[in-house]
């Protein structure tokens, strides 16, 4: 029951985000979408993922987006509006994506997958959260992707700092 | 539902006391009397202030973005209040005992930032906009040293659960499920050979278990002042430049909500500081040979005495920190923007990074 409420909120606010012309409203409805997706994660016993999503997307990315919208010029004292361009291409690409995704989900036959059928059992068991498992997995099975991701972030950080510095010579 | 109401009541009570204390502390530090008319020593002043605010007209500026303007105070207060859900008030009283409470708290507070932007933009006012921008920039950048200081505690305690961290810092250590055979040593180092598991009191607080957390505590406290927009980090609401910052257009009940959210933020960051560094609801008095001070001032868990003693110690430590916040407000002048950023990025963040590294090494010494 809870799932349907949050899913409906996520879909509605997502649709509003796409359909509204006002970029700022789109940003704030993205907040609602992210919150309800976090709630769905919690319902799936993925508490760490839910909180990480809040931390990264709401605390970081969304604030950055809002800052970007607010710092860009107010046109004729009105909020920033988006315009329709590339209507034909946009519609065809999104339709193709929809068909591709539906086909993949249909082919997967998820109701027969073993881990879906076991989903009724309590996944966490005696543990209080998934943090310990995630930590152990990150340091054993997935240590290479983890380190590469951290290297990538470091490079992005250094690049951002380099772009932001004053270039005297130019 | 009961926890919600109880926490809200407690919070309202604390905030009213705090608003009164702020005016009295300010007055005494400036050699004035402060409020004296309403009630004995003016103690009803803040209650009357709240009543006055509730009666005022709720003005929504004609040029404001009405939906955002009305929604913003609710979002700001909801974000701060949601943080209280994971705060343990006594050994067995916690609204929501989730296993990743510390992480949740850090994440949910960042919702506050979105609310601030909403209020600043919705007001359609240059002062409000500038105030919100400054406030958000400040909060986002000071989250980093605060987060690193908290991370060093988490590394020492090996837990993201506020209640587990609380149990680790006192004589009730072995009562927490999963910690039955843990032991506390002086400064956390077994080689010193002084077992403090049953001594408790201040010797098992986190700032004592790993003395370098004292530095982390100072960093966290400074960063938390900035996160709750308190002086000396109050450029977001600098009266001489911005009139009042992001809430300049708000009046009546909506202003009351924003005011409440601001003071709740002060209370929340102080509570977190107490729980993570200053022993949570544990007594500061240690057991000394025959004088079982810690046992006497802890009460029995699960009974009324345990609840009362736990709540008493937690709240009194929080009030000491809140008093410190008020005192600092009337002691230090406001920082300029460049000084603010210098302090955050070139002083606090590098030191906090060093603390995180040292905390890891200290943890290795502890096992």
TrEMBL record, chain A:
Enzyme class name: translocase
EC number of the protein: 7.1.1.-
Catalyzed reaction equations: a quinone + NADH + 5 H(+)(in) = a quinol + NAD(+) + 4 H(+)(out)
Transmembrane segments: 27-49, 56-75, 87-106, 142-164
Alphabetic keyword roster: Cell membrane, Membrane, NAD, Quinone, Transmembrane, Transmembrane helix
The UniProt record lists the keyword Cell membrane: yes
Subcellular location: Cell membrane
Membrane topology type: Multi-pass membrane protein
The keyword Repeat belongs to this UniProt entry's keyword annotation: no
Function: NDH-1 shuttles electrons from NADH, via FMN and iron-sulfur (Fe-S) centers, to quinones in the respiratory chain. Couples the redox reaction to proton translocation (for every two electrons transferred, four hydrogen ions are translocated across the cytoplasmic membrane), and thus conserves the redox energy in a proton gradient.
Record family assignment: Belongs to the complex I subunit 6 family.
PANTHER family: NADH-UBIQUINONE OXIDOREDUCTASE CHAIN 6
Protein name as catalogued: NADH-quinone oxidoreductase subunit J
Organism: Pontibacter amylolyticus
TrEMBL record, chain B:
Recorded name of the encoding gene: nuoH
Main location: membrane
PROSITE patterns: COMPLEX1_ND1_2
InterPro entries hit by this protein: NADH_UbQ_OxRdtase_su1/FPO, NADH_UbQ_OxRdtase_su1_CS
Family to which the UniProt record says this protein belongs: Belongs to the complex I subunit 1 family.
Top enzyme category: translocase
Catalytic activity: a quinone + NADH + 5 H(+)(in) = a quinol + NAD(+) + 4 H(+)(out)
PANTHER family linked: NADH DEHYDROGENASE SUBUNIT 1, NADH-UBIQUINONE OXIDOREDUCTASE CHAIN 1
Keywords: Cell membrane, Membrane, NAD, Quinone, Translocase, Transmembrane, Transmembrane helix, Ubiquinone
Stated role: NDH-1 shuttles electrons from NADH, via FMN and iron-sulfur (Fe-S) centers, to quinones in the respiratory chain. The immediate electron acceptor for the enzyme in this species is believed to be ubiquinone. Couples the redox reaction to proton translocation (for every two electrons transferred, four hydrogen ions are translocated across the cytoplasmic membrane), and thus conserves the redox energy in a proton gradient. This subunit may bind ubiquinone.
Subcellular location: Cell membrane; Membrane
Pfam families: NADHdh
Protein name as annotated: NADH-quinone oxidoreductase subunit H
Keyword Transmembrane appears in the UniProt entry: yes
Transmembrane residue ranges: 71-90, 102-121, 207-226, 255-278, 307-328, 340-365
Membrane topology: Multi-pass membrane protein
Organism superkingdom: Bacteria
Enzyme Commission numbers on file: 7.1.1.-
Subunit structure: NDH-1 is composed of 14 different subunits. Subunits NuoA, H, J, K, L, M, N constitute the membrane sector of the complex.
């Amino acid at each position: 029951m809870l799932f349907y409420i949050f899913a409906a909120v996520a879909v509605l606010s997502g649709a509003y985000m796409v359909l509204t012309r006002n970029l700022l409203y789109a940003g704030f409805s993205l907040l609602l979408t992210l919150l309800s997706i976090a709630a769905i994660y919690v319902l799936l016993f993925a508490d760490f993922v839910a909180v990480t999503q809040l931390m990264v997307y709401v605390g970081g990315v969304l604030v950055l987006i809002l800052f970007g919208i607010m710092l860009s010029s107010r046109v004729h004292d009105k909020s920033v509006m988006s315009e329709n361009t590339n209507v034909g291409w946009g519609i065809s690409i999104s339709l193709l994506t929809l068909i591709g995704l539906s086909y993949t989900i249909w082919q997967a036959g998820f109701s027969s997958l073993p881990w879906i059928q076991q989903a009724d059992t309590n996944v966490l068991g005696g543990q209080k959260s998934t943090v310990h498992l995630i930590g152990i997995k990150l340091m054993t099975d997935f240590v290479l992707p983890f380190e590469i991701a951290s290297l990538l972030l470091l490079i992005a950080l250094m690049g951002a700092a380099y772009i932001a510095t004053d270039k005297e010579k130019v | 539902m009961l926890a919600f109401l109880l926490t809200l009541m407690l919070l309202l009570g604390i905030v009213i006391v705090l608003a009164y204390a702020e005016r009295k502390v300010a007055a005494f530090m400036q050699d004035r009397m402060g409020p004296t008319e309403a009630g004995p020593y003016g103690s009803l002043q803040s209650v009357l202030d709240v009543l006055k605010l509730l009666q005022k007209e709720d003005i929504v500026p004609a040029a404001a973005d009405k939906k955002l303007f009305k929604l913003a105070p609710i979002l700001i207060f909801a974000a701060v209040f949601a943080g209280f859900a994971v705060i343990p008030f006594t050994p067995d009283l916690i609204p929501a005992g989730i296993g990743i409470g510390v992480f949740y708290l850090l994440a949910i507070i960042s919702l506050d930032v979105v609310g601030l932007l909403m209020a600043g933009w919705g007001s359609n006012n240059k002062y409000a906009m500038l105030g919100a921008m400054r406030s958000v920039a400040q909060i986002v950048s000071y989250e980093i040293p605060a987060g690193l200081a908290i991370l060093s505690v988490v590394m020492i305690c090996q837990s993201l659960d506020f209640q587990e961290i609380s149990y680790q810092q006192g004589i009730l250590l072995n009562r927490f499920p999963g910690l039955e055979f843990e032991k506390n040593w002086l400064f956390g180092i077994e080689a010193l050979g002084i077992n403090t598991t049953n001594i408790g009191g201040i010797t098992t607080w986190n700032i004592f278990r790993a003395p370098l957390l004292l530095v982390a505590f100072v960093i966290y406290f400074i960063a938390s002042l900035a996160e709750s927009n308190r002086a000396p980090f109050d450029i977001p609401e600098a009266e001489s430049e911005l009139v009042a910052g992001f809430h300049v257009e708000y009046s009546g009940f909506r202003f009351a909500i924003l005011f409440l959210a601001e003071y709740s933020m002060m209370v929340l960051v102080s509570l977190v500081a107490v729980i993570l560094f200053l022993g949570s609801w544990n007594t500061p008095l240690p057991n000394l040979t025959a004088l079982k001070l810690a046992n006497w001032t802890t009460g029995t868990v699960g009974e009324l005495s345990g609840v009362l003693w736990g709540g008493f110690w937690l709240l009194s430590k929080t009030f000491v920190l809140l008093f410190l916040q008020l005192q600092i407000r009337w002691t230090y002048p406001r920082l300029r923007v460049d000084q603010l950023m210098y302090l955050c990025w070139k002083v606090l963040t590098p030191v906090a990074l060093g603390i995180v590294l040292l905390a890891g090494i200290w943890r290795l010494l502890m096992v």
